[in-house]
# Entry
Amino acid sequence: MSEPLESDAPDFETIETLAVVGVGLVGGSIARAAKVRGMARSVVGVGRNLARLEEARRRGLIDEATVDLAQAARRAGFLIFCTPVDRIVEGVRTAADVCPSGGLITDAGSVKGCICRALAQGLPKGVEFVGSHPLAGSERQGFEHADARLFENRVCVVTPVESSPRPAVTRVTAFWKRMGAKIIEMTPEAHDKALAETSHLPHLVAAALAATLSAENKALAASGFRDTTRIASGDSELWSAILLGNRDEVLASLSRFDASLTRFRRALEQNDSAALKELLKAAKMSRESVVNT
Amino acid sequence: MSEPLESDAPDFETIETLAVVGVGLVGGSIARAAKVRGMARSVVGVGRNLARLEEARRRGLIDEATVDLAQAARRAGFLIFCTPVDRIVEGVRTAADVCPSGGLITDAGSVKGCICRALAQGLPKGVEFVGSHPLAGSERQGFEHADARLFENRVCVVTPVESSPRPAVTRVTAFWKRMGAKIIEMTPEAHDKALAETSHLPHLVAAALAATLSAENKALAASGFRDTTRIASGDSELWSAILLGNRDEVLASLSRFDASLTRFRRALEQNDSAALKELLKAAKMSRESVVNT
# Structure
């Protein structure tokens, strides 16, 4: 086809005032991308530490800085919550109560079920919440690492519930597409089941592995150890909230991992070279089927 | 001290003929480094696939190519084995039987106990074996990735046994120092215990994690998953031999990992946010104490 697809050049009506709640790596990158791409006339950053927010403003990431969520929400037609996952529901309620009719709220949290189900009810008429989760970020923290291109060619999962109005879902989808993300739409529950396996379980395993290292062996930890445990450097408060916010699915993934590890252990215990080779080969194929992006 | 230390500018007598047995990433890098640094007048590459060896010769990594180990060993004053670990003992015996008196043999294998103990006996008088293990390499394979600087600032563990003559240990140490490596001398057993924890266990865990990934979730595997499972892309034959070659220590490390993972699981099961945060914080500190090189 020679005409551009809608998905290649999505319509996204410019936001008068965009509120970014939580201006860290992800929030800062969203603020930067929204400005660079002309998606918002004004970006207000909301947080708990005014000095940090003022620094983000000095760096040009946001136009205004405030610690007063309600004050920002009153003027914001579009809000995105990038706070730790255990503070999103409460924040969205506070904002929804005062934001203009027609206001649209989304988030960037790594768990979706507990957030989207809680917010499926009780918001004022005319204000909508649609959850999202951009698969970008890293163990780095703070807006100092903000990058307007953080979401380019990254997957962003959008997680409407049954009652989400289609126009709201379409607008949140268009928001992320304009940031360069590839959209996957899923239910919050399907998201949590998948991310338990691809993100939350790996975090738990990396942390348990890092914790296993004896002090006297540190000099002998080379690139393999460092790669395998890199994500264990993530913030412990953030990750504790994520793991607890998706507890049942994480525990289920952990059981599958245990079963997998037991197969390797058994082959090793039984000195079964053929079985061990097969297991390693299957793992290698699985790893290599994941496209490096 | 103002005088240069011996360890900073090690003496290393030029080798007339260096034999590199197994010309892959590590063997190829050793061959390249030996030539670049003028450590050997001639480098003979020994392998099983003559066409591949001829290609390595055309690329200038080695001066001669042969599939006849004994023929190469007859002329070589210094030999290094970079074959899979389960072929080192047999190869060293074959070479030692015919190499010139005064010949020195080392290896680059990832396990040391089973190799060094087997070779502590039965070599002809005047020929010495001292094990080594450079902590370099990657999931990439083949001499196409050879790099003369692969060992620079990397740790190389040298593992003499009680009967190893000190001059032989000193010469193997000087060989690696000239390649830019930082030397740690340990017993083969101490090496295997440490590497079980820092390398072999992470490989097993990464493989079990990669194997846990469901096909339908691949699109949702982001950089965290990819980092954590990167080493699972290693060659399954090589790694099967390494894991079985250090079986008891790998199983002991696996038990410690299981205990660590159980602590995380329990905190999650009990919804114990404080305990989970503490565990994640300790893991983060452990990870961050490992210097990135």
About this structure: Chain B touches chain A through 85 residues (CB under 8 Å). The beta strands of chain B are 15-21, 40-46, 64-66, 78-81, 104-107, 128-129, 131-134, 155-159, 182-185. The two ends of chain B are 26 Å apart (CA to CA). Chain B has a mean pLDDT of 94.
